[in-house]
């Protein structure tokens, strides 16, 4: 568990780059404080995982052993084809691009304060030139937008 | 008079409290200026235009800059906890704020000190916090979309991000989801479920629907939900009951969408600019 979602996103980046097979999940109710995410890893790897994170200056608040109760983040996408525009939805977040020039034209949905910020940074830029939500987002909504961004990129950029 | 509580996507925007006005593409609070693109500024611009149409005072805004780190949201929460007891509003709308159960509850305690108690409306992040706190019944209106309705219906889900037992894009399940939200105490007195058909409901089920005019591109445009919530905020601030406010807000926002003739790349301000014309057409037709 981490101080905030930004640290979870940072930890995910560090650990995936290091080749660790980890998952970003939701914590069980007894350890929730708000809109939380946690990193799930095999307990046997705790020492190495924590050392890797500390070297990256992303120190977890705590490591908790759980056998079940972690919530599965969304992994289903919905796509709407408007002809010249394509919209992909992941959870509560939607991203729409103009298929003619791959410009991000709209971002909608969500409720966390980084959504309008992410939209301001991404709308008007080409998919391959827009900042990834994982690099500037902070919340679960930002994380959901990252998934939608990856999916629409997969569909639009070979 | 209504109040609107939220954030703007500018890290350096200070905590401000004041009446808003709209000029061109910008929203002004005192001497502070913010672009009307989406989020709480879009809600406020809509509410301000609606209030101006009726010759009423614009909403009072409580805002701070927050790009997701939560610092600005905590400033707003803390300020509200201090001052709400001395304020008088017909309605308060809570919007893009970092969900935080503890801070939510402290603000709700402050609301309980207000006389008379205002009508409470929650959308976006604050609706998530209201549900997570178990205090949803303290609110007059939530304005979820279908995914957020599923989140309200799921007693365990802490955020719409989690798939636990709920599925998006299943409008045929809307009655079931509404019922579940009320059974588990996770719904406000009225729900306005935003979608291809907007649905007003309470604990007894669906009360009213609004499905015309149909503007499919609205789903892709960021801020269209903020328009509906802004209209509800304005209407309740003018003294309308919350159910009437929901139904009229849905109809007027659809009219504004039709007048703007948008495509999925349209910016929400182009629709907000049509609010006065949509209000004129709606209330003249009535």
From TrEMBL, chain A:
<dbReference type="InterPro" id="IPR058495">
    <property type="entry name" value="DUF8182"/>
</dbReference>
<feature type="domain" description="Putative Se/S carrier protein-like">
    <location>
        <begin position="1"/>
        <end position="63"/>
    </location>
</feature>
<protein>
    <recommendedName>
        <fullName>Se/S carrier protein-like domain-containing protein</fullName>
    </recommendedName>
</protein>
<dbReference type="InterPro" id="IPR021778">
    <property type="entry name" value="Se/S_carrier-like"/>
</dbReference>
<dbReference type="Pfam" id="PF26554">
    <property type="entry name" value="DUF8182"/>
</dbReference>
<feature type="domain" description="DUF8182">
    <location>
        <begin position="80"/>
        <end position="152"/>
    </location>
</feature>
<dbReference type="Pfam" id="PF11823">
    <property type="entry name" value="Se_S_carrier"/>
</dbReference>
From TrEMBL, chain B:
<dbReference type="InterPro" id="IPR029056">
    <property type="entry name" value="Ribokinase-like"/>
</dbReference>
<feature type="domain" description="YjeF C-terminal">
    <location>
        <begin position="117"/>
        <end position="269"/>
    </location>
</feature>
<dbReference type="GO" id="GO:0016836">
    <property type="term" value="F:hydro-lyase activity"/>
</dbReference>
<protein>
    <recommendedName>
        <fullName>YjeF C-terminal domain-containing protein</fullName>
    </recommendedName>
</protein>
<dbReference type="Pfam" id="PF01256">
    <property type="entry name" value="Carb_kinase"/>
</dbReference>
<dbReference type="InterPro" id="IPR000631">
    <property type="entry name" value="CARKD"/>
</dbReference>
